Amino acid sequence: MAYLSIFVPDFPVEAILRREAELRSQRVVVLEGKPPQQKIFAVNENAHHAGLVPGMTRLQAEAWPDLAMRCRSALQEAAAHAALLDCAQSFSPRVEDTAPDTLVLDISGTEALFGPPAKLARDVAQRASHLGLEVNVAVATNPDAAIVAARGYSGITVLTPDTQQERLGHLPVDVLFPGNAPEKKDEAQKFLEKLERWGIRTLRAFAALPEIAIHERLGEKGVALQKFARGANSRTLVAVDPPLVFEEAVELEHPLVLLEPLAFLLNQLLEQICGRLSARALATQELRLRLELDPCMRADSTPGTVISSEGVQPEPRDLAFLSKIKNSNTVISDEAKDPGFSNHDSRSTRPPSFFTRTLRLPVPMLDAKIFLKLLQLDLRAHPPGAPIVKIWLSAEPARLRPGQAGLFIPPSPEPQKLELTMARISGIVGEGNIGAVELLDTHCPDGFRMRHFTPRDLSPEKRSRRSPKKSALARPSTKTGHAPVPQITGEAGGSHAPEPIVTALRLFRPPHPATVSMRDGMPARIECASEKVTSGDISWQAGPWRSSGDWWEQEPWARDEWDIAVPNCHGLVLYRLVHDLLRARWFVEGTYD
Amino acid sequence: MSLLVCAQPATGDPASFVPLSGPALLQRLSVAAHIGQVTPASRLEVRPDPELVSTGIAQLDALTGGLPCGCLTEMHGLPSSGRTSVLLSVIAAATHRQEACALVDVSQAFDPHSAAAASVDLQQLLWVRCHAATPKARPPQRLGEEKTQNKSDMARMAQALKVADLLVQSGGFGLIVIDLSDLSHDQARRIPLASWFRFRRAVENTPTVLLVMGQGPCARTCASLVLRLEKSSAVSFQLSALSSQLSVVNGLGSRITVHNFAHPSEVPEGPAHARLLDGISVNLEMQRSRLHRKPAQSDKTGFGTRTAWKIATNVF
């Protein structure tokens, strides 16, 4: 049996550095507590070398130059832990979630798949590094020995049965008490003080003590720790099956008002999520963005004031974003008009408001750049309306789409490119003005709705399932000829019988109002202000065809339709003339073309 | 070959410009370092003829051979000349081939019910409705109205060009239609030639058919195929709708009578509700084609369209 342990040194710091990788070369401390009683909770190696230790107050830490201080973030620690689990699960299905910073994998039988343990350990460290975490990896013959080795040795350590006890013996006894849990700190401190008084500093010295004497002086806990130090402890791995939740979060120290820095953060989150999905060989078909908005946003705050705190000159689109914030008629803005509130008080008392956007994709994708562009375009069309203080981004996992191209498959847009193109076009023409048409089961004129355009998947197997039969047009139920949607069938490129060419109607949206003179109950002359409709005597008319509907709804309709021909200098133009019976008005609805 | 006198290196001596021909010229070309990269015309790659796809109209296919892939095709005509009917037929044929199609609709004139009646697979059609901000206040004068309308039209046309650019660059569509039919010819002519060149270059060597509809030709030399449509002087109307319905109900099985009249004034008198618009006759002329320098046969054809209710009644 072989076990691999992953240990993240200074886990709270690593969780912060996962988002701010540029701080890795600096001294970083993580603070905990409420101001002004904040204390250092964790430090990175650089800060440790400079003399900073956990427990120091913020005031003491500020004496060090070039020190990056960050508040502890439970959200980011949870995301880092989830990423670590994803990394481990991509190598072995049996993973023990020992601690937030420690995982143990059962790697028995994986040699054929991933190679020898040393290579596997390197791959694990590399994948964790891709997910933004610098980890220690150790391989040993039992879980506890692997944990101790990962905590004690940095980098990659592979212990063989022969050398395991000897190498563990060099480690200090501190590795038996890892973590920063405050409830265990006192107990560990007492234990270490006792060993220090006995002159025991390494695991080898501790392992050499007689077991009975240890039991007499330190009790059962001492005996267990001694077995731990010998690397001889044998236990069953408690494997976990974590749910497939892919969520990343960022807690911002200052509210974010500009789109550009938001895009920068989203890019980081998307890359992390895509990395995690990739580790599990998954993709996503739905992205959910959740933003916690600052409830203290004043409606009268000028964009310049907000931007000056960031030190960035606003771009025109950012100013537009800010102006939308300023002019937003959300509850937040209405509350902000209250003249008596102060920023600090309102932040603590007012409930936070959230802004959620969901991005649904037609096919599973795994491309952070496309996701980012889609989110950017969406946020530009739907700005949050207030500064942002927290960001959650989650992905609904889906299996990767197997694709098999064919020589004889007709051209079809790539789904990723198509989504991006449609999002860009949507930004130009407006949402709801692009898509595929779906006819509604109604006789109401213009009875259709727009839906997302997704061309058929033309994989060979799906094409072969289609029925080759060809449906005929059914008899129209009304004169308008609203025939049911024909089911287009047949093989690609196949020949089909020639169909009669349908006289098409071109609609005027909105219809042009017209003044119609009647003679013998029939339209005789039409006058229309629009230059697209010819005014004059009506040469020929057919109708009326009366229809009505939706009388049970709020907006009933009833109309008479006429087909008319009006001569102009080029000949005849055929129009559809509509008399709205409820409003007693005439419209030119379209032209036959 | 003797035309290539200027291919000699300029030595500054006018006497050195001697006409060369044949092997001597090729030898001189290979010696000259700075023009050694010139490829003789005989070795230039011949551009292959584009693949042609069916329009769904037999007469049109017989005339043109189909619409060329990777080329810009222009179809123009006045209102009620059958442009949209032909367009729907082209889209229906493309969707029958399971190709993804896109329609950039400048004036939001597309009627989904007509398309469904024309057997267009609406799931395969991406409809982009160009949308311009509605003018807030309607000026009372007619002149003001026209100016506002023109501005709105130009804004929608600019949108259409942007959208078409994105669609063409995106690739993968079998047919992209830019429908400028409701814009006046003068407005459509304002589209710079550079835009049409860009579109033509973008679709080149792709299986995409780029089709432009308008009231007049606007893509000029960028169009590989230009078709002009005009309605025939004969407009067919149906008179016996009511009687035919009664006949069907009674099981008499009599056929619907269709009359073609050169002018509506020749239509016999009858109640208006007993008439039906049956269809329009379309004349089509091929004005220019890159494939046919001189058409071997007549470059004109004609066909008729049928209204949806007429077709449905026949089926019934």
Helix content of chain B: 25-40%
Cα end-to-end separation of chain B: 70 Å
SS summary, helix count of chain A: 19
Sheet with the most strands: spatial strand order of chain A: 18-17-16-22-21-20-19
Structural class of chain B, please? alpha/beta
Overall pLDDT metric of chain A: 79
Shape of chain A: elongated
Q: Sheet with the most strands of chain B?
A: 9 strands, mixed
Number of beta strands of chain A: 22
Mean pLDDT across all amino acids of chain B: 75
Defining traits:
heterodimer; A: alpha+beta; seven-stranded antiparallel sheet; 19 helices; B: 316 residues; alpha/beta; nine-stranded mixed sheet; two-stranded antiparallel ribbon; 9 helices
Walk me through this protein's architecture.
The complex is a heterodimer of chains A (593) and B (316). With 593 residues, chain A is of the alpha+beta class. Chain A is 33% helix and 27% strand. Chain A contains 19 helices and 22 strands. In chain A, a hairpin with a 2-residue loop joins strand 16 (505-519) and strand 17 (522-528). Chain A is elongated. Mean pLDDT of chain A is 79; it is low at 298-348 and 458-496. In chain B, strand 4, helix 4 and strand 5 form a beta-alpha-beta unit. The radius of gyration of chain B is 26 Å and the shape is globular. Chain B is α/β, with parallel strands linked by helices and 316 residues long. Residues 1-15, 135-144 and 238-262 of chain B have low confidence and may be disordered. In chain B, the strands form 2 sheets. In chain B, strands 3, 4, 5, 6, 7, 8, 9, 10 and 11 form a 9-stranded mixed beta sheet that branches. In chain B, strands 1-2 form a two-stranded antiparallel ribbon. Chain B starts with 21 loop residues before the first helix and ends with a helix. Chain B contains 9 helices and 11 strands.
